[in-house]
Amino acid sequence: MTKYLISFPAAAMQVPAHELAQVGRDAHAVIEEAKAAGVYVFAGGIDESVAPTLVAADGTIATGGYTWAPTLNGGFTVLELASYEEAIAWAARIAKACRCDQELRVFGLDTQS
């Protein structure tokens, strides 16, 4: 089984305010389906009200992330699935619920973790 990251940046979700509650219900319904199917690992979103902290190897910290990198925000779902085709099908279900395209990525297996 392979773990897949299904995600979207915050700017991709262009949903009118009056539809947000329904989007939330639809997205949670897909997550409940993933849990029932036994493929759910975790899901959530970046809390944009909390600034990232950059931590160096010597323990020094700086407010903000990498200045040269795009902002990391939006929603994330990790599912453990038998095939890439199955991952595409779940990503499509999440895209429909969230009303925006989803990026699909494969996690590499780290046998030491």
Which key phrases capture this entry?
globular, four-stranded antiparallel sheet, single chain, 113 residues, alpha+beta, Alpha-Beta Plaits, two-stranded antiparallel ribbon
How are the SSEs placed, and which strands pair?
Elements: E1 2-8, H1 20-37, E2 40-45, E3 53-55, E4 61-63, E5 75-81, H2 84-98, E6 103-106
Antiparallel strand pairs: 1-5, 1-6, 2-5, 3-4
Helix pairs in contact: 1-2
Structure report:
The protein is globular and about 45 Å long. Helix 1 packs antiparallel against helix 2. It has a single domain, classed as 2-Layer Sandwich (Alpha-Beta Plaits). It is built from 2 helices and 6 strands. The chain is an alpha+beta fold and 113 residues long.
- Helices, by number, come to 2
Proportion of residues in helical segments: 25-40%
Secondary-structure content class: alpha+beta
Mean pLDDT: 93
Rg of Cα set: 16 Å
Would you tell me which CATH topology applies? Answer: Alpha-Beta Plaits
Shape: globular
Using the 3D structure, state the CATH architecture.
2-Layer Sandwich
For CATH, the homologous superfamily is named as Dimeric alpha+beta barrel
